[in-house]
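[recover] target loaded
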């Protein structure tokens, strides 16, 4: 059932779990399904409070529903747009959001928003119903799903903010954030925290305003003056995002992130970065000169697929570099990705997901790659 079986799993319970999986016809990922069932048994054994069980049940049900809705679209790149529910259709921010969503959808990107009014409605209006997802939160004081996603099968209704934020972030390949209130700032800081700590994949983040707007400049002043000067963040952390007042620049930032970069994964202590084009010898030397400070041992090198990648058939057609990344300086890793995208050997910026699928065999960040227990898959081959 699992090579990391809980010490509380008796042989009898393990056998019952296997019997149940047989009875429901489960043939794939039985180890993970078994862990879920064992967790349920342990909740019962712990005498877990009824309210805690209700929270657990509801959260799992919400995630299952969202997984099912997104599953048919896993190969399509997606961008999540965050912003205020209180922005009126007459506000220039509304038009800015609509324009950036229209441009991204025209390039084959689907748009995800919270499904409510304001900036969320603007994003879905710009993308069009066919290219839209809504992940709506049920609140007692704001209206439900907006007209551009209401009654659509790609609308998800959720009770909990934490499950909603999980899906808004997990399913996306890029993020655009418009000015907003507490909720928007919460989403912005959580997104930055996940990427800064390596708990989420590197992704393009654009903090977008209208021409002449200064919301994000003042936000950044606070971040630099109060967080940076106190040593609470590193200088490189401010490289995890871009501030812009131009919708076209925001689109180029999101799509350009995948010009050469495709995805990454760890194999043991080695970070493998998959690329559309392999760097030249001279470019490898330049990368080592610029980014050797984040390599704990050895050098940045071109690499063939490592054995665990071969075993999983993990984007074997892609070029690769490999390095022993220190796992701390995520802002510097983002700078490395930018450098890889800017190499002379890098291909021209791709126009949309169709070309990406031909070259890369799928969306840039596969959920199964994110979730793998790579450290258990064998020693580095470097």
């Amino acid at each position: 059932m699992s090579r990391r079986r809980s010490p509380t799993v008796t042989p009898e319970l393990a056998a019952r779990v296997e019997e149940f999986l047989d009875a429901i016809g489960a043939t794939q990922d039985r180890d993970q399904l078994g862990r879920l069932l064992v967790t349920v048994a342990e909740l019962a054994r712990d005498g877990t409070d009824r309210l805690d069980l209700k929270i657990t049940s509801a959260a799992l049900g919400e995630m299952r529903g969202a997984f099912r809705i997104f599953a048919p679209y896993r190969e399509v790149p997606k961008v999540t747009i965050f912003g205020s529910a209180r922005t009126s259709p007459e506000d220039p921010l509304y038009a800015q959001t609509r324009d950036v969503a229209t441009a991204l959808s025209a390039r084959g990107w689907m748009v995800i928003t919270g499904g409510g009014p304001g900036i969320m409605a603007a994003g879905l209006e710009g993308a069009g119903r066919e290219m839209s997802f809504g992940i709506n939160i049920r609140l007692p004081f704001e209206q439900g799903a907006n007209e551009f996603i209401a009654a659509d099968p790609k609308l998800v209704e959720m009770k909990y903010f934490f499950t909603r934020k999980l899906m808004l972030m997990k399913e996306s390949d890029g993020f655009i954030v418009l000015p907003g209130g507490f909720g928007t700032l919460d989403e912005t800081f959580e997104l930055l925290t996940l990427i800064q700590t390596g708990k989420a994949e590197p992704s393009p983040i654009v903090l977008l305003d209208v021409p002449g707007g200064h919301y994000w400049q003042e936000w950044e002043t606070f971040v630099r003056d109060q967080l940076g000067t106190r040593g609470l963040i590193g200088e490189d952390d401010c490289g995890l995002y871009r501030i812009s007042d131009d919708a076209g620049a925001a689109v180029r930032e999101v799509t350009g992130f995948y010009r050469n970069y495709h995805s990454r994964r760890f194999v043991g202590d080695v970070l493998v970065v998959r690329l559309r084009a392999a760097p030249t010898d001279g470019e490898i030397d330049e990368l080592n000169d610029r980014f050797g400070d984040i390599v704990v041992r050895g050098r940045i090198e071109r690499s063939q697929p490592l054995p665990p990648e071969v075993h999983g058939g993990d984007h074997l057609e892609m070029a690769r570099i490999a390095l022993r990344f220190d796992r701390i300086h995520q802002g510097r890793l983002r700078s490395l990705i930018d450098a890889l995208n800017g190499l002379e050997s890098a291909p021209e910026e791709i126009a949309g997901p169709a070309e990406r699928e031909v070259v890369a065999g799928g969306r840039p960040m596969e959920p199964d790659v994110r979730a793998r227990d790579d450290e258990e898959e064998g020693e580095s081959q470097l």
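[recover] notes: The chain has 14 helices and eleven strands.
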